[in-house]
Specification:
- The chain is α+β, with helices and mostly antiparallel strands.
- It is built from eleven helices and ten strands.
- The strands form four sheets. A three-stranded antiparallel sheet has the order 1-2-3.
- A hairpin with a 2-residue loop joins strand 6 and strand 7.
- Helix 3 crosses helix 7.
- The protein starts with 16 loop residues before the first helix and ends with a strand.
């Protein structure tokens, strides 16, 4: 699956729109070593609070960008490979693997990760990739649900999400999803913790500015699960949400709680115009 680094020309991280063509002046695209093209700067959708939508990729140094774009160097692909092995492994009382029902993930999972969280009629709420995979495990495979942030969970989620690399974020926000979008928006703008800060204070009011030795990004979710140099592993979105809340000295919501799920819906919408980069590489 991974392509050798030699296939990526030097400086590809700064490859501009003019080299790929077909987009407006406000867009910027970069190309990975396997030919997948990411939109890292885009025009915002109607009603968006920002004048431009920027991937976290745009806030990284060129060296980090180059690692992400080189499938051979990108350490997140070790998690993709592990996820592929899990996809084909039989588990549970039903004697099934993910592949038993879904076949080749490169075909069946294409676009799935770009549209998550997605409405689940039976549950009467949206589900994200972690939740959907657990539903498959418990209901179809007879296998136990994953413990949150179990390495196997992060690997299979990274693998499934990576099948949508280069595809535009396409999340539903109307119909039954509208109430969840509104709830997520409310959480995004609500100050909390001893520092009395909201998500918007960092990721909307101050993106591009320094926080300690790093740049604040727009907090987009299109690269998650993302490989973080700091932790030497892939990090899930709800883990990152927890980290942000701890940073402002607030009591974090529980992973997979309705609060974080609503926030995931709203944050995904804020990335409309960008493409899935999983596994992205961040500091």
């Amino acid at each position: 699956m991974r392509k050798h680094a030699g296939l990526l020309a030097a400086g590809a991280a700064t490859m501009a729109l003019a080299m790929t063509g077909g987009a407006t002046a406000e867009e910027k695209r970069v190309e990975a070593s396997d030919g997948v093209v990411f939109t890292v700067k885009a025009e915002p959708p109607e009603g968006h609070p920002l004048t431009e939508v920027l991937s976290g990729f745009e806030f990284r140094k060129e060296e980090t960008q180059d690692i992400q774009l080189d499938d051979f160097q990108n350490p997140g692909f070790l998690w993709v490979e592990r996820g592929e092995a899990i996809w084909n492994t039989v588990e549970g009382e039903a004697g099934k693997s993910c592949a038993s029902c879904h076949g080749d993930a490169e075909e069946s999972m294409k676009g799935v990760g770009a549209a998550m969280p997605k409405w689940n009629e039976a549950l009467g709420k949206p589900v994200n990739l972690e939740m959907q995979i657990d539903l498959c495990r418990t209901e179809e495979m007879g296998a136990p649900a994953y413990k949150f942030d179990d390495d196997a969970q992060k690997a299979i989620v990274t693998y499934v999400r990576s099948q949508s690399r280069g595809m535009p974020i396409d999340i539903q926000t109307d119909g039954p999803m509208e109430a969840w979008w509104e709830r997520g928006k409310e959480i995004y703008y609500t100050r909390s913790g001893q520092l009395d800060m909201a998500c918007a204070n960092c990721h909307e009011d101050n993106y591009g500015n320094h926080i300690r030795a790093d740049f604040l990004s727009q907090g987009q979710s299109n690269g998650f699960p993302t490989y973080r140099m700091k932790s030497q592993g892939v990090v899930s979105l709800h883990n990152r949400f927890k980290g942000c809340m701890r940073d402002v000295r607030a009591e974090p919501y529980k992973p997979m709680s309705d609060e974080f799920l609503a926030l995931e819906v709203y944050v995904a919408w804020r990335g409309t115009g960008l493409t899935v980069e999983t596994p992205a590489v961040r500091n």
